Automatic annotation (TrEMBL):
Catalyzes the methylthiolation of N6-threonylcarbamoyladenosine (t(6)A), leading to the formation of 2-methylthio-N6-threonylcarbamoyladenosine (ms(2)t(6)A) at position 37 in tRNAs that read codons beginning with adenine. It is a single-pass membrane protein. Belongs to the methylthiotransferase family. CDKAL1 subfamily. The gene is cdkal1. This is tRNA-t(6)A37 methylthiotransferase. Gene3D superfamilies: Methylthiotransferase, N-terminal domain, tm_1862 like domain. Residues 405-467 form the TRAM domain.
Length: 505
C-alpha cells in the first residue's frame, strides 16, 4: 500500500539542487553531532531572532505573471495558495522578501521580460517549477525561504496517466475580482512544429464538466460578473473524457445570472468545425459574447502543412463564413505568424489577401522566432530582414482600416469590468466583446449599462451613458476585495499544506 507521501518521494530529486547534500550525506553528518547544552547569550538570542525571520509563511511576496490568460489563471492560483498559507502578497517589488515570477517560454517577449526580471533581482537562490506543479508553489517558496534551491520539473501522473493542471478548487486571488478565468483543459491534441507550449502543457487533459460548473457557480457567489474560458485549444475540450465543448457550454450558460457574461477562449479550426451549428447557437445566447478567437497563423496551405496545423485555409474560411452568417455581428479574432520557415512571397500574399477579405477587427501579428528544441527551429529560416518587412507590411495593412466607424450612433448594452490603462475611463464590452470606454463612475463597476456610441477608434468605442437607463446589477453577490482569496474555505492550513515537504529536509 503506497504511503501518503509516495507521490512526493517520486520526485524528491527535484526538490534539491545538485550542490545540496544528499540524504545519505545528511544522515551521516547527523551521526557525528553530539548534542550539548549551550549557555543562552546575546549572540544566541540574535541567532534565534534571525531564525524566526526565516519561518516560511511570514514573508512578503511580489508576484509577476506574463503570458496568455491560461498563464494568468495559473498565476491567480499561485497567489491564492501563497496568501492562504500566510504569505503577504505585495504590489511593490522593492518591498518584497521574495519574488515569484510566472512566465511562459512560448513567446520571446514574455521570456525576455522574465530573464530581465531575474537579472534585476540579486538572488541568493533560484528555484524553478513547471506548470504541472502549480499546486506545490507553497512547498517551493517555503524551501526558497530556507535558502534551498528547488527544481520541480517533472510531470504529474496518476496511475500512469498524465494529469492536467491544478485542481480547480484551490484558493486563488483574481487579478480582477470581477473576472473569473477558468482553464477548461490543459494541453492539446496537436504537435505544431513551432510550438513550445506543447512541451510545457503536454497532451489534452480536460477537467470534468461538474468541476467546471461548480467553479463557475462559486465565482458568481463571489461577485464575479464575467467568466473567461481558456486553454490551448478550447475546441478540443472533452475529447479525452468522452464529452465536447458545446455540452460544457450549455451547462455553463445555465449558471450565468442575468447581467453577467461568458467569454469563450481560443479554439483552433479543426475540432470546432464539427460543432459549428451548436457553436452558432451558443454565441447567439444573450449571456455569451459573440466573440471567438480562431488563430489561423497563415493563409497558405503549404505553410500550414509545414506548421502541422492539421487544417487547410478552406477549413478556417468555413468556420469564419459560417459564424458570420449565423451570428450577426460576430467578432472573429485571429493570429498570424510572419516569416515561418519556407514561407514564400506568394504564401505571404495569400495571407495579405485573406486579411483584406475579412478585415479582422482584432489581429495578433507575430514575427516568426524559432523556439529552441522545436522542429521549426531546424528548418531553413526566412532571412531576418524579410521577416521584418512582412511583419511591417501586415501591420500597416491592419492599421489601414477602422472596423468600428459604422457603430457610431448605436445604442448598446455593455458590461463594465475594469479601468482603462490611462485611468481616465472604465472599460466595458458590448455583446461582440468590442471594447467600449465609458465615464468612470463608481456605480458602473461590475454593472450592465446602456450607452450611446459617440466615437470610434482603431481598438475601441466610446459610449455615453443613457441618462434615463439605470445600471443593471447582475443577480450576484458583492465582489471580493482586490487581493482577497477566493475559495479559502477549502484550503488546508499552512502547517498541513507544508507537512509533506518537511519530511524530506
Ligand atoms: S495547438 Fe499547436 S500551437 Fe497550440 S498548444 Fe497545441 S501544439 Fe501548440
Amino acid at each position: 500500500m503506497p504511503s501518503a507521501c509516495d507521490s512526493l518521494i517520486e520526485d524528491i530529486e527535484d526538490m534539491v539542487s545538485s550542490t545540496d547534500p544528499t540524504p545519505n550525506e545528511r544522515q551521516s553528518a547527523r551521526k557525528s553531532i553530539v548534542p550539548r547544552s549551550r549557555k543562552k547569550n546575546e549572540s544566541l538570542i540574535n541567532e534565534e531572532l534571525q531564525a524566526d525571520s526565516l519561518i516560511p509563511g511570514t514573508q512578503k511576496i511580489w508576484m509577476k505573471t506574463w503570458g496568455c490568460s491560461h498563464n494568468n489563471s495559473d498565476g491567480e492560483y499561485m497567489a491564492g495558495q501563497l496568501a492562504a498559507s500566510g504569505y503577504k502578497m505585495t504590489d511593490d517589488p522593492t518591498d518584497a522578501d521574495l519574488w515569484v515570477l510566472n512566465s511562459c517560454t512560448v513567446k520571446n517577449p514574455a521570456e525576455d521580460h522574465f530573464r530581465n526580471s531575474i537579472n534585476r533581482k540579486e538572488t541568493k537562490t533560484f528555484s524553478a517549477y513547471t506548470v504541472q506543479q502549480i499546486d506545490r508553489v507553497v512547498e517551493v517558496v517555503d524551501e526558497a525561504v530556507k535558502g534551498h534551491s528547488v527544481r520541480l520539473l517533472g510531470q504529474k501522473k496518476d496511475g500512469g496517466r498524465r494529469l492536467g493542471g491544478a485542481r480547480l478548487d484551490l484558493p486563488k486571488i483574481r487579478k480582477n475580482p470581477l473576472i473569473e478565468i477558468i482553464s477548461i483543459n490543459t494541453g492539446c491534441l496537436n504537435a505544431c512544429t513551432y510550438c513550445k507550449t506543447k512541451h510545457a502543457r503536454g497532451d489534452l487533459a480536460s477537467y470534468p464538466i461538474e468541476e467546471l460548473v461548480e467553479r463557475a457557480r462559486q465565482s458568481f457567489q463571489e461577485g464575479v460578473c464575467e467568466i473567461w474560458l481558456t486553454s490551448e485549444d478550447t475546441g478540443a475540450y472533452g475529447r479525452d473524457i468522452g464529452t465536447d465543448l458545446p455540452t460544457l457550454l450549455w451547462r455553463l450558460v445555465e449558471e450565468i445570472p442575468e447581467g453577467a457574461m461568458l467569454r469563450l477562449g481560443m479554439t483552433n479550426p479543426p475540432y470546432i468545425l464539427e460543432h459549428l451549428e451548436e457553436m452558432a447557437k451558443i454565441l447567439n445566447h444573450p449571456r455569451v459574447y459573440a466573440f471567438l478567437h480562431v488563430p489561423v497563423q497563415s493563409a497558405s496551405d503549404s505553410v500550414l502543412m509545414d506548421m502541422k496545423r492539421e487544417y487547410c485555409i478552406d477549413d478556417f474560411k468555413k468556420v469564419v463564413d459560417f459564424l458570420k452568417e449565423r451570428v450577426p455581428g460576430v467578432t472573429i479574432a485571429t493570429d498570424l505568424i510572419c516569416g515561418f520557415p519556407g514561407e514564400t512571397e506568394e504564401d505571404f500574399q495569400e495571407t495579405i489577401n485573406m486579411v483584406k477579405l475579412y478585415r479582422f477587427p482584432s489581429l495578433f501579428i507575430n514575427q516568426f522566432y524559432p523556439r529552441p528544441g522545436t522542429p521549426a527551429a531546424k528548418m531553413e529560416q526566412v532571412p531576418a530582414h524579410v521577416k521584418k518587412q512582412r511583419t511591417k507590411e501586415l501591420s500597416q495593412l491592419f492599421h489601414s482600416y477602422n472596423p468600428y466607424d459604422h457603430k457610431v450612433g448605436e445604442r448598446q448594452h455593455v458590461l463594465v469590468t475594469e479601468e482603462s490603462f490611462d485611468a481616465q475611463y472604465y472599460v466595458s464590452h458590448n455583446k461582440f466583446y468590442e471594447q467600449v470606454l465609458v465615464p468612470k463612475r463608481a456605480e458602473f463597476k461590475g454593472k450592465m449599462i446602456e450607452v450611446d456610441i459617440y466615437e470610434a477608434g482603431k481598438h475601441f468605442l466610446k459610449g455615453r451613458p443613457v441618462e434615463e437607463s439605470k445600471p443593471f446589477t447582475p443577480s450576484i453577490a458583492a465582489p471580493l476585495r482586490k487581493g482577497e482569496v477566493s475559495g479559502l474555505m477549502q484550503v488546508n492550513t499552512h502547517t498541513n499544506t507544508c507537512t509533506p515537504a518537511y519530511r524530506y529536509i
